[in-house]
Amino acid sequence: PESFRDVLQEYASRTKKIRDLVLRSIAELLEIDEDYFVNQISNKASGFARFNYYPPCPRPDLVLGLRPHSDGGLLTILFNDDNVGGLQIQRDGRWYNVPTKPHTLLINLADCLEIMNNGIFRSPFHRVVTNVEKDRLSLAVFYAVDAETMLEPAPGLLDDKRPSRYRKMLAKDFVAGLFEHFRQGKRFIDTLKI
């Protein structure tokens, strides 16, 4: 519906501002050019929104809402359900619940950004579990780089003491490998480590 289209357009416009603010803040923390990551996004770069609905599940021990993965693009902005958890991240082989907090956005750094920051900030391996009693909604906005972008660590992060941790790869080739590894529940980015 047109009214919903306007709301979604406004939401997308505001999340772009948040994306750019987060990317500039990361660059500042890394002490590289503030616009380095923002400049990696061309007008050909993809961005899309995905609405997720997870109905109640009588056997959440047997059914995942979304299998373990890391996001393949640049950055994900997630508007999570205020009342029902389900998002989990993995650390050191253990799964941890991500707490829900009303009216907040969750920012996930994605694999392409991990490569560009040379692994200083990591893309989290995560999944969604189902709930036995309640349904869950979320809205994820995924931002990526242009398919022809060469994924590699920012030059300002490399020197003799800090060599590249990842092989160079075109973004479109990375995405192709990503889907194959997603089906296997593995992180494709791990195959690029030097």
UniProtKB/TrEMBL annotation:
Q: What InterPro entries does UniProt report for this protein, alphabetically?
A: IPNS-like_FE2OG_OXY, IPNS-like_sf, Oxoglu/Fe-dep_dioxygenase_dom, Plant_2OG-oxidoreductases
Any one GO molecular function term: metal ion binding
Which residues does the UniProt record annotate as the domain Fe2OG dioxygenase?
A: 44-145
According to the lineage, what is the superkingdom? Eukaryota
In terms of SUPFAM superfamilies, this protein maps to:
Clavaminate synthase-like
Alphabetically ordered keywords of this record: Iron, Metal-binding
Q: Tell me one Pfam family matched here.
A: 2OG-FeII_Oxy
Which Gene3D superfamilies does the record associate with it? B-lactam Antibiotic, Isopenicillin N Synthase, Chain
Give the transmembrane ranges: none
> What is the protein's name according to its record?
Fe2OG dioxygenase domain-containing protein
